[in-house]
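Because showing beats explaining, we let one protein speak, sequence and backbone structure tokens together, and leave readers to judge.
___
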Amino acid sequence: MAMLRCMKALVCACALAASALLAAAADAQIVPTGFADQSVLSGLDVPVAIEFAPDGRLFVAEQLSGRVRLVVNGALASVDPVFTVPGVITGGEQGLLGVALDPQFPARPYLYTHQTDATQGVRISRWRLEGDLAFTGDGHLTVDVASRFDVIPSAPNAANNHNGGTVRFGPGGDLFVSLGEDATPCAAQDTSTLRGKILRLDVHALPDGPGAATRAQIAPAGNPFRASADSNAWLVYANGLRNPFRFQVDEIAQTLVIGDVGQNVYEELDLIDATGATSGERSDGAAYAGANFGWPWFEGAHAYDACAGFAPTLTAPIAEYDRSSLASASIISAGAYRSATADTTIWPSEYHGNLFWSEYYSGILVRLVRQGNAWVVPEAVAGQPSNGWGTGYRAASDWRVGPDGSLWYCRQYASSFRNSGSVRRILWSGGRPIDLQPPPATLRAYPAPAPGSVTLECGVGLREHLVLRIVDVRGRLVRRVELLGRRTVTWAWDGKDDAGRSVPSGMYFAKLDADGSEVSARIVLLQ
């Protein structure tokens, strides 16, 4: 959201105009020794949510413009934007708020969005992606807006705040959605309304093409309120939430890590099992499907206000913090740190499975570890700021662990509001364990011969700094590009030099410099 949670006495536009807040948001990021905070792409217009494709391409949703943009190898795709979501209404905390990619992409080329709509309230929509789906060329993607299929055609949006905002696929392939209580606190306790809830939706069998789903089509059989007479309740996975704007999925632990924005005193972090189980013996403190996190009877773990009937049994948060000294506060879940695969980690091994959350206004980034029966803030590590594991993260609205093992985030704005947003990442720069040293870099060119363009596939392991050069048979430089590191990088050479001129047919050599490790591949170009 443009401002995730405005001060009660001020509209968001006033808060955004406050020069003191904007100046504070420009603070430098400070992280512990051995880590570095790096800009990937700047100049974005209030980016609010990010989503990785398996091949490393990154979708970025912009809240106020309604655009979905695509980052390919550290730059915007050749076709930009992917599309603009039609009918998005803004103002207050509204807008395009979340984005998710089908886990079976590109076989199922679907993108899902969470937005407030000018006529339909909160909508969860599916769109069909087209373009370079397999990433064999320049990687661009587009959406035909006529392909829109509304998974949730309309959820309540009477107020301009507390809309939720996250869509994420869980470990079993179901789509999880967060919805705020729409400034109607006791609605969070009512399972017959889609307010103050986490939903779990089955989208596997929905038909291709445009349309809209019925509740019966998307309600998993194992949802906790599936036996209810009310079809809204069929979708509810957890309730009693105020504004769970941002949650993350931990696919290894099979949990959702939910940041629920508080009212006056407490912000909370909640943890819930994502498998559909309603009971069990988890050792991490996670709740189970059907959990009631208590709002508004409770704010955090503390009694707050009453609704009709009896107070629910509280499912306590795993962490909370007193924000009463802050003019405004909004917790942002950064989820669990996990590497790109289950058995390795690019950050040091002691971070594997740790939870993180950031504070939208003060900018602190907090680390939690499991000790006994509790999640606690561990002892400070070298170089850590005094008031958090990291600082300078004001206006960060979404976090993801990327394919490179870094912790990525989008920042909505910096020194000014519009068009000053960015995508950044926290990477480990302090050396890696011996068993995680990257294998030798590889470079492959195909097809051979190449009719007009050639795809270069770079196997770079964990390396960060990549320079790819195309030279002719005399060793003269034809083309030079810098690529953003991840395990495998593909880049399509279009047969043009650095000045954009087509080069003649013949033999060329691609040379990849990956952190000092150079490899080459032969290209036979047919123009």
